[in-house]
Amino acid sequence: MDEEMREAPRPQAVQPPTFKAPKMVSRPKPPVQQEEELGAEPKLGDFEGEHALSISEARAVVTAIHTKRRQMEPGSNPLGGDRVHNDSQSIQQFVDYLDMFARYKQTENLHSMGGIFDSNPQINPVERAMLGSLCPDTADEAKTLIPSLATKFEDDQLQPILDELQKLQDRFG
């Protein structure tokens, strides 16, 4: 019996299959070179000419649309009769994010913020959105975060605008 065991072929270790990447079906596309920078004049690449919103303005728009969809009749809903509105987890997280980081939550404050920016036409829409989202405390901080403001304003011209924006913020919810 010992001889039979010695002569019996031993099972070889099974090698796991190796992964081979599929061949490229098409040629790789060259990356599109776009200029995006915030220098003396903001360059936005694909977003040039688009209307920029601050986080607070985006919150107002998304909240209004979300509320309107909740109030829709189930039969007239494009999402289907059984779904009153799109209340997916990702949309709810997006709304929660906007609620958390919006600095101007009251509609009156948003309108006042728009009035401050309208009275200073040299502030372009991108700078408006960044000032409304970043909410810098000092003119130096604003010029550091938004370099294009340095060519448009002196510190003593920019600081009163920032002070007015600070007064409008909803600091505690």
From TrEMBL:
Coiled coil: none annotated. It is found in: Nucleus. GO terms for biological process: DNA-templated transcription initiation. It holds the Pfam family RNA_pol_Rpb4. One of its GO terms (molecular function) is nucleotide binding. The keyword Cell membrane does not apply. Residues 45-172 form the RNA polymerase Rpb4/RPC9 core domain. GO terms for cellular component: nucleus; RNA polymerase complex. The keyword Nucleus applies. Keywords: Nucleus. Gene3D superfamilies: 1.20.1250.40. Residues 1-43 are annotated as: Disordered. Belongs to the eukaryotic RPB4 RNA polymerase subunit family. This is RNA polymerase Rpb4/RPC9 core domain-containing protein.
